[in-house]
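Hi C.,

You asked whether I'd gotten around to modeling the 112-residue construct. I have! Everything is below, sequence then structure, no commentary in between.
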Amino acid sequence: MFFSQEGPALVARIKGELDLGTADRLRQELEASIDHARPRILYLDLEGVSFMDSSGLGVILGRYRRLARQGGKVVICRPQPQVRRLLELSGINKLMEIVSEDPDRSPGREVL
């Protein structure tokens, strides 16, 4: 996982499989980065995620709830088709914006 920050936005680039075996480590790394950066927007770049199960969904929902309580939001970027399908079936796409652009290169990158 790689993090970058620009102003109130934190970008987390996630790679590999996001399942029961990796979810806890991802949760810990995201929490530590959110604690440190205190972002208002968390961009989760999922371009490098080849598989995700309910454990991964739980990590994303937990970070969504945390940022929502603080007045922030989570944006999911560039999910692979199979991951996007899971996000849509779970209803996460109704809670969070899902975009196809690279969060660093999006000309309309939103800043609260």
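If it helps when you're writing up: The CA atoms of residues 100 and 106 lie 9 Å apart.

Thanks,
B.
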